[in-house]
Write a structure and sequence with these properties.
Layout (H helix, E strand, L loop, with lengths): L1 H34 L3 E5 L6 H17 L2 E5 L5 H13 L4 E4 L4 H13 L3 E5 L8 E5 L1 H20 L4 E7 L5 H15 L4 E8 L4 H14 L3 E6 L2 H13 L18 E3 L7 H5 L5 E3 L2 H16 L7 E4 L2 E3 L4 H13 L10 H9 L9
Parallel strand pairs: 1-2, 1-3, 3-4, 4-5, 5-11, 6-7, 6-8, 8-9
Antiparallel strand pairs: 10-12
């Protein structure tokens, strides 16, 4: 009898332990579900570009601060590959996909598939209504600011708003390229004395920029300035002009060489060339600042917070007047990324933290 009672007692204890373990497992599972980090994937155009790599590093830093898992994936610089990879990513059920599209038209079916499967998409560098939200630089503004800077240089050179200019663009049909060029050409078309000789796509490739510049120098002997949509195009093109003794610099301009060609650029990856005198201006897109901001927006989407359908941000104009303090800001973002106070705009950071002149406030 005593043995039976003892056996019953152990049975009851066993059942109690099993119930307790089950409760702990259930609570742990619920807690894990509640605290699981969102998964955010950046689907890039390709790999090996230092600007993209800097952006991904900053996005990973945003993940560290905000609490999400992050990885970047290459689209192999091929629209169809990128679309196929997008399908594969959707099937893996990340919380948000950040998309830097090569060809928006080619991505349309993949975006529809993401929506069907309930995967949120943050479209970058363009506005796409099929995405959950979009974030883009105001590319029309970038082109317009470059045009105004170039017009001022033409006035210095010729005494009035006249002369010949050309554009080295990126990929034809890509919003970041087409619209950034359009802002410049539309503004210049309103200037009766200015002629836009050519808008030449380069596929964002340095060798194509070099070849196009060689062609410009032959075809357009009166070319005064070239607007490049990226510093990565400006530098190789400027080197071609320099080899032929036709490069305008801040130190040796048209006063010393009447046939020289000057460069006004965008994206700011080689902003040091403004301080050194090889470029007359660029506009900072800051891969560190933009990478952090884009990832922060993606996290807000993942967390279910209100995110505008379209977010537009502004590049920051760098000229000889503010190049030194701009470079200090740029270098601090790179070297102190883990502690840098990434703010709402480059203009705000430059003005408040670095007391740097903001030259594009009313442009």
């Amino acid at each position: 009898m005593e043995e039976a009672m003892r056996s019953g007692s152990w049975a009851r204890r066993g059942l109690f332990c099993l119930a307790a373990i089950a409760a702990v497992v259930a609570v742990s599972a619920a807690g894990a579900s509640q605290t699981a980090k969102p998964s955010i994937v950046w689907l890039e155009q390709g790999a090996g570009n230092p600007y993209w790599e800097a952006q991904h590093k900053a996005a990973a830093e945003a993940g560290r601060r905000l609490g999400f898992r992050f990885k970047a994936v290459s689209g192999n610089l091929n629209p169809q590959d990128q679309a196929n990879i997008m399908h594969q990513l959707v099937d893996q059920k990340p919380t948000v996909i950040m998309l830097n599209s090569i060809d928006p038209k080619a991505m349309a079916p993949a975006l529809a598939y993401a929506k069907q499967k309930g995967v949120k998409v943050l479209n970058m560098y363009g506005v796409d209504g099929k995405a959950t939200a979009s974030v883009t630089f105001d590319e029309i503004r970038t082109g317009r600011v470059a045009a105004k800077v170039t017009l001022g240089l033409l006035k210095q050179r010729y005494g009035s708003a006249k002369g010949e200019v050309a554009v080295l663009s990126g990929i034809l049909g890509q919003p970041a390229s087409d619209i950034r060029a359009k802002g410049f050409t539309d503004y210049m078309k309103k200037q009766s004395g200015v002629k836009v000789d050519a808008v030449q796509p380069t596929n964002w490739a340095a060798d194509k920029a070099s070849a196009a510049m060689q062609d410009f120098l032959v075809k357009f002997p009166n070319l005064a300035f070239v607007y490049t949509l990226s510093d990565t195009l400006a530098l190789p093109a400027a080197n071609i002009a320099d080899r032929q003794s036709k490069l305008c610099t801040q130190q040796n301009n048209w006063k010393q060489n009447s046939s020289c060609v000057g460069f006004v650029s965008a994206d700011g990856i080689f902003a040091n060339q403004v301080k050194d005198g090889k470029f007359f201006a660029t506009q900072l897109y800051s891969p560190e600042w933009s990478g952090f901001l884009f990832a922060q927006l993606a996290y807000n989407l993942a967390a279910g917070k209100a995110v505008p359908k379209v977010t537009k941000i502004n590049a920051f104009l760098v000229t000889p007047q503010n190049a030194t303090c701009s470079l200090k800001m740029i270098n601090d973002m790179k070297s102190h990324m883990r502690t840098f106070p990434f703010g709402p705009s480059l203009q705000a950071i430059a003005k408040t933290k670095y007391h740097c002149p903001v030259l594009d406030s009313n442009m």
